[in-house]
Amino acid sequence: GTRAIATLPGDGIGPEIMDVAVKVLEIVGEAEGVDLRFEEHAIGGDAIDKTGCPLPDETLAACKESDAVLLAAIGGYKWDNLSSKDRPEGGLLQLRAGLDCFANLRPATLEDELLEGSPLKPDIIKGVDIMIVRELVGGIYFGQPRGFMDEEGDRAGYNTMVYKKSEVERIARVAFEIAKQRKGRIVSVDKANVLEVSQLWRQTVADAFEEDGCSSDGLELANMYVDNCAMQLCSNPSQFDVILTGNIFGDILSDQASVITGSLGMLPSASVSSPGKPGIYEPVHGSAPDIAGQDIANPLGMVLSAAMMCRYGLNEPEMADIIEDAVKDVLAKGYRTGDLMGSSPPGAELIQVGCTQMGE
Ligand code: NAI
Ligand code: MG
């Protein structure tokens, strides 16, 4: 049958990299006999300019009706002075919440071709293959109460970090399922030495692990404080297989893990809901306003997000394999966008290309 893909190019380099991803999908879809229908909708700053709000009702409704949502990036200098609830980034939070995409999957995998380009020592990072499973619709980014207040003549801003047992259980179970398809090692990351919310998190993960009989499935569960995890990601990243964590810790750790791969521009992500509901597939990086409109952005994070969409959202793993192999292939042949120019596979000459050319 046909698959309806809602495409949300957004702001900055978003439209440039979306263009590449759609072309790749069209070609691979045709080769594999999968009929993809693309429908473009506004989000972020682009939607604010067109409609006054970062996630128009029409966009959310179309995304709910789709089989999968492909999102590029949102945000930019132009909208930086709006209050936090009116900003482009608000559109993304609303979309994730609106589709109930509670699980964010962020791989940090190092392609051998990019080993030399990483700022970290090759012997430390060789073969790193981490999947960060981040809770996406709870925690401090959504907790109530939040706001500003005046207290004894001083001004304060405040947010609330709260997790319910049920929220922790469902994200933990996503991590367990993913671990079964990988090396089976889960590290749950929290700050249980300081935060009550983390104590509940830790206990709930342990209970769910026990209840599901994960040990007999060959899974291992360990706990780690978030500050230690940040250090270990730099000093010994190959110890990790699946990292399970909450919203804000996962946000920070996944950006940190991205350094291992040499460029933020390489990293895809998936934000998924319960089976059968549409997920959101988007690169980890932002709208890169500093390089927008120059046709120099790296489209590979976007293209690899399209591959994740094929694998997890459309159940077309062959399409995902073809796309991922093509990415390895162009890297092995020495093609690099500007952000990757530090890396060089043995014996290959590097060829610097722009965004469109990389797609071609
Ligand atoms: P950013 O990821 O947009 O850029 C950080 C740095 O990495 C910049 O120097 C940029 O040029 C470079 N970079 C990012 N993606 C690249 C690519 N594909 N190819 C080559 N270079 C790339 O993060 P920043 O600067 O903190 O945020 C810029 C805007 O993006 C802000 O408005 C922010 O709120 C928004 N943002 C949106 C996200 C999303 O849509 N999911 C995620 C992160 C930030
Ligand atoms: Mg982030």
Automatic annotation (TrEMBL):
Among NCBIfam families, the record links this protein to:
leuB
List, alphabetically, the SMART domains matched: Iso_dh (SM01329)
Q: Which Pfam families match?
A: Iso_dh
* The protein's Enzyme Commission number: 1.1.1.85
Question: Which GO annotations describe the biological process of this protein?
Answer: L-leucine biosynthetic process
Assembly description: Homodimer.
Task: Give the main EC class.
Answer: oxidoreductase
Q: Report the protein name in the record.
A: 3-isopropylmalate dehydrogenase
Spell out the molecular function terms from Gene Ontology. Answer: 3-isopropylmalate dehydrogenase activity; magnesium ion binding; NAD binding
What does the entry's cofactor note say about binding and number? Binds 1 Mg(2+) or Mn(2+) ion per subunit.
Q: What does this protein do?
A: Catalyzes the oxidation of 3-carboxy-2-hydroxy-4-methylpentanoate (3-isopropylmalate) to 3-carboxy-4-methyl-2-oxopentanoate. The product decarboxylates to 4-methyl-2 oxopentanoate.
Q: Which family does it belong to?
A: Belongs to the isocitrate and isopropylmalate dehydrogenases family. LeuB type 1 subfamily.
Q: Which organism is it from?
A: Chloropicon roscoffensis
| Cofactors (names) | Mn(2+); Mg(2+)
What PANTHER family does its record include? 3-ISOPROPYLMALATE DEHYDROGENASE
InterPro entries referenced in this protein's UniProt entry, alphabetically? IsoCit/isopropylmalate_DH_CS, IsoPropMal-DH-like_dom, Isopropylmalate_DH
Q: Which stretches make up the Isopropylmalate dehydrogenase-like domain?
A: 4-360
Listed A to Z, the keywords are: Amino-acid biosynthesis, Branched-chain amino acid biosynthesis, Cytoplasm, Leucine biosynthesis, Magnesium, Metal-binding, NAD, Oxidoreductase
The source's domain of life comes to Eukaryota
Q: Which HAMAP family match?
A: LeuB_type1
Location comes to: Cytoplasm
* GO CC annotations on file: cytosol
What this protein catalyses is: (2R,3S)-3-isopropylmalate + NAD(+) = 4-methyl-2-oxopentanoate + CO2 + NADH
Lineage at the top is: Eukaryota, Viridiplantae, Chlorophyta, Chloropicophyceae, Chloropicales
What metabolic or biological pathway is this protein involved in? Amino-acid biosynthesis; L-leucine biosynthesis; L-leucine from 3-methyl-2-oxobutanoate: step 3/4
